[in-house]
Amino acid sequence: MPHHLVVQAPALPQATLEQLAAACGAAITQRTGPCRARLSPCPDAVTPALSALAAGLGVDIARVADGARFADYGLIVSDMDSTLITIECIDEIADMHGLKPEVAAITERSMQGELDFAQSLVARVALLEGLSEAALERVYLERVRLTRGAETLLAACRAHGVRFMLVSGGFTFFTERLKARLGLDYAYANELEVAGGRLTGRVKGDIVDAAAKRRLLIDTRDALGLAPQQVIAMGDGANDLMMLAEAGLGVAFDAKPVVRAQAAVAINHVGLEGVLGLFDA
Predict the structure, then answer these.
(1) What's the pLDDT tens digit per position in 46-70?
(2) What are the residue ranges spanned by the domains of the chain?
(3) What DSSP string describes the chain?
(4) Reported pTM
(5) On the chain, which terminus has fewer CB atoms closer than 10 Å, C or N?
(6) Residue 281, pLDDT score
(7) Bridge partner list, 7
């Protein structure tokens, strides 16, 4: 099947397009918007050298099949922290407890794939013991912000009948509020144990880790009667890799290097509207 190279950036000068076209041997440069273009014919693969050139030019590139449409998908499975929203909730909760540097350091190592996610979550939550449950509400109201382009992507999902599932290694306190606020179809996360209005430092039930994210994707996909090719998954950390690999299209969004290296598409310079920008319609 013929492919083209999608180029996206906050600003896309003609000189940048010409430099990319020359590097990949493209003969046709077609602007499809002020910040988007397609180059063809497309190389057989996006090489490390081409990726490095794009990164240096401040643009996102992706190899996309001709005629691919967003409406052909039926489900998006998204991570929450640093993907649908701009923060890591557990780090901001820890900030309310005066422990953000300690918790954030564990979070970073886990996201880089240096620590087992479940073990790191247990260790981080244990540090939150005794914190008032009211701190969670403060984090939600004062610090949770949607990632740029999130509302555009969600509006397109509603318009085209694409279901949206939030699956997070974070906490139900936040996923349930976002589900209600944004009209999401599904939301799964870990539940913090609370007693007497304070966190106990424990998680209730099974932990939503990489394997659980993958399983939830498969279960929801199968329940909807979708083929694997009809699922988009997006995330930024090592615990998202299994679900990205299971999806027809795996998108590394503002992701750690280990995730960018393995995902089919990496979006680093534009917002979540860049997922829509991959498609003709």
Answers:
(1) 888 999 999 999 999 999 999 999 9
(2) 1-66
(3) --EEEEEE-SS--HHHHHHHHHHHT--EEEEEETTEEEEESPPSS--HHHHHHHHHHT-EEEEEETT--GGG--EEEE-TBTTTBSS-HHHHHHHHTT-HHHHHHHHHHHHTTSS-HHHHHHHHHHTTTT-BTHHHHHHHHHT--BPTTHHHHHHHHHHHT-EEEEEEEEEHHHHHHHHHHHT-SEEEEEEEEEETTEEEEEEESS---HHHHHHHHHHHHHHTT--GGGEEEEESSGGGHHHHHHSSEEEEES--HHHHTTSSEEE-SS-THHHHTTS--
(4) 0.95
(5) N
(6) 63
(7) 37, 61
Which CATH number applies to 1-66: 3.10.129.10, 2.60.40.10, 3.30.450.180, 3.30.70.260? 3.30.70.260
Q: Measured between alpha carbons, how far is 69 from 238 in angstroms, rounded to an integer?
A: 28
Q: Give bridge partners of residue 144 from the DSSP assignment.
A: none
Mind telling me the catalytic residues?
79, 81
**Residue length of the chain:** 281
